[in-house]
């Protein structure tokens, strides 16, 4: 699924029991501490259990705690380091919001995936199934027929564009009267472009239809 941009890039830390206990019982001075430390270090026993269950810290909380440990190690006999307290803690990374895919697009993707899987299955099992060992799609005549259809469609496109150019370049002059060569050339190009845009759409539909015809025929032969 497509992802949106991250609204809140804050990295959250779910502290381990060791880290939580240290903040609750060993941190004595919280002056200037960030909100995460002060809220977890609340003196009210009424709120301790609730806050411990859902306590989270931020990067600035760990930075403050690291500075606090550095100062404490200068006078303490037992030296405590942040990485020891941080062990077993969980890091919660920001996640982007997923945008639901268009249902029509999803249905078309599923349809194309099913057709592709069916073609792969047909190719894999054709050699062991005598009824499908020699499919019409494998014959040279069938392949030539498909190529001829596509060539005819392309030829129709080319002739239509040429006819549109001829109408703008010659036909308009016959209807109106003598026109400037540059103006006639411009009319021919405009007519050819308009017809080309329309023909490209119908040409794509035709070529796409031929591709689906092959898939549907192979599916039908498999069901038979």
TrEMBL record:
Cellular component terms (Gene Ontology): endoplasmic reticulum membrane
Keyword Ligase among UniProt keywords: no
Pfam families per record: Vma12 (PF11712)
Keywords: Endoplasmic reticulum, Membrane, Transmembrane, Transmembrane helix
Location (main, coarse): endoplasmic reticulum
GO biological process, one term: vacuolar proton-transporting V-type ATPase complex assembly
Transmembrane segments: 151-175, 181-204
Subcellular location: Endoplasmic reticulum membrane
Name of the protein in its database record: Transmembrane protein 199
Protein source organism: Atta cephalotes
Gene symbol of the encoding locus: 105617808
